C-alpha cells in the first residue's frame, strides 16, 4: 500500500501547502513534520542549515515511511533540494518562489518578491528570475518578521498591524512607483496564511501568487499511488509544541510528537550576521 505524503517545513508554513494538497488529493494520507526548534530558517547560516535540513528530513522519512517528501519551505528548497534528492530514495518535491507564473500574470512587468532574507538572496532565486522574468523589474523584500506573525496565528493570535505594515512598506512604495508593481510572489510558505491581512494592508489591489497549486500538481506527476489512509494526520516536531495543537487539528493533523533525530545536534546554532 502507498505511504503518506510527508510535508516538511521549519514551522507551520507548510500548512498552506497542506491546504492545496488536501484540495487536490482528498483521499490521500498526509504526515507533517516541522523543525520548530530551529525556526526561523530564513536567518540561518547556509552550511549548518543544509546539514540540519537533511538530518531532520531523514528522521521524518524514517518515522513516516512516505511515498513522497514535499519540502514545503522555500528557504530549505532553494538551499538543500539537491542534497535531499541525493540522500533519499523517495521523490522529493520542492517549493521555490513562483517567479514564472508571476511573470506570466504581470501587466506592468514590475513584480514584488516577498520572502525570507535567505530566499531573496539565494542564487537559485536569481536563476529563476534570469530564466523566467528577465524583462521584469523585481522588488525583493525580506520579511522575516512575517514568519513570526504567521506562526502566532496558529495559536489564535491576530497579526500585529504595525509590524505587518513596517515589513510591507517597501512593497507599497513599489506599488506607487512610476512603473507600479502589480504582482507579488509569496516566496515563503508562511505568507499565504497571512493573505487576508496582506490584502487588507495593500494600498491598491494586487495579484498574489504562491506555489501551492503548482506543488500539488507536481506531486501527482511524481507518484501515482496517492490514495491511502494509512497514517493520515501524523505530525512531528523537533521541540515541544503544545500551542500548535488546535491549529494543526484544523488542517487534519493530530497532536505533534517529538521526532527523534538520529544523533545529537545542537539546538543553539549560529545565526547569520
Ligand atoms: N516557511 C519557510 C519558507 O517557505 C521559511 C520560514 C523560516 O524562515 O523558517 O521559506
Largest sheet: 6 strands, parallel
Q: Quote the beta fraction.
A: 15-25%
Number of strands: 10
Just name the CATH architecture of the largest domain.
3-Layer(aba) Sandwich
Give the SSE string.
EHEHEHEHEHHEHHEHEHEHE
H/I helix tally: 11
Average pLDDT figure: 93
What is the CATH class designation of the largest domain? Alpha Beta
Work out the helicity level.
Answer: 40-55%
Cα-atom radius of gyration: 18 Å
Q: By helix and strand content, what is the structural category?
A: alpha/beta
Runs in which pLDDT lies below 50 for 5 or more consecutive residues are 264-268
Main sheet strand line-up: 4-3-1-2-9-10
Count of spatially separate domains: 2
Cα distance spanning the termini = 47 Å
Q: CATH fold name of the largest domain, please? A: Rossmann fold
Oligomer: single chain
What's the short version?
42% of the residues lie in helices and 15% in strands.
Protein described:
The protein has a 6-stranded parallel β-sheet, with helices on both faces. The chain has a 4-stranded parallel β-sheet with strand order 6-5-7-8, with helices on both faces. The chain folds into 2 domains: 5-95 and 213-258, Rossmann fold, CATH 3.40.50.1860; 99-210, Rossmann fold. It has helices at 14-24, 46-64, 74-87, 99-105, 117-121, 123-132, 144-153, 161-175, 195-201, 212-222, 245-250, and strands spanning 5-9, 30-34, 68-71, 92-93, 110-115, 137-142, 183-186, 207-209, 234-237, 257-258. The protein is built from 11 helices and 10 strands. The protein is an alpha/beta fold and 273 residues long. Strand 7, helix 9 (195-201) and strand 8 form a beta-alpha-beta unit. Bound molecules: D-glutamic acid (DGL). Residues 9-11, 13, 39-42, 73-75, 116, 119, 147, 188-190 line the site of D-glutamic acid. D-glutamic acid (DGL) is lined by residues 9-11, 13, 39-42, 73-75, 116, 119, 147, 188-190.
